[in-house]
Design brief:
The chain is mainly α and 84 residues long. It is 90% helix and 0% strand. It is flat and about 50 Å long.
Length: 84
């Protein structure tokens, strides 16, 4: 692997981890959302619960799909869906 390609992969990995970390930064947004919109903690936490459930569900089926189709198609599709 050429040196340039290694840096592209490393930088892409950093950006991916930052994007994935946004899901786990939910606790930072919980209190401001309850104050801003007047929602209860349980209503706000439901959103986080749903997102974690969907993340786990998608990871399971994405892994099965990865074994059949390979990483290129699965990563591209996952990136598009995550961006949407």
């Amino acid at each position: 692997m050429r040196t340039n390609n290694r840096w592209v992969i490393a930088i892409a990995g950093v950006f991916f981890q930052i994007a994935l970390g946004a899901v786990y930064a939910w606790s930072v947004f919980r209190v401001p959302l309850t104050k801003q919109f007047g929602w209860s903690i349980s209503e706000v936490t439901l959103t986080f619960t749903i997102s974690i459930f969907v993340l786990g569900f998608a990871a399971f089926f994405g892994g099965l799909w990865l074994n059949r189709k390979g990483p290129r198609i699965v990563a591209l599709t996952g990136g598009v869906f995550y961006g949407v």
